[in-house]
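User: Predict the structure for this protein chain, please.
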Amino acid sequence: MARALAEAARVSVAPIRADVLRDIALQAARSWANEWISALAAEGRPVAGGWPGTMSDARARAGALATRTLGGLTMTAIDHDELRDLTHATYKEAQRCWRDRAPATPADDE
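Assistant: Here is the predicted structure, written as structure tokens:
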């Protein structure tokens, strides 16, 4: 009986955890992109060209935020597969934020 209850609790938390991880990716990405955009603006430079971030940066930022957030919610630590997925989601969202701020180029119109 205890085992069945534990399994039921784990399954019911899965959608909540997925939502938390999605929110972490969005928050980490948007913060990261805004930091780049602000740094360029402070230097008087425009947002142009390809996204300057790296997957290593995405992993570090998303992983750190996930550790703090999941710990604060008393959820288990992020696992390898979740970190991989979180890294990719963070990178793609940061890249999208960057593209949304960069002026269109002729290659973008094709």
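The chain has a mean pLDDT of 87.
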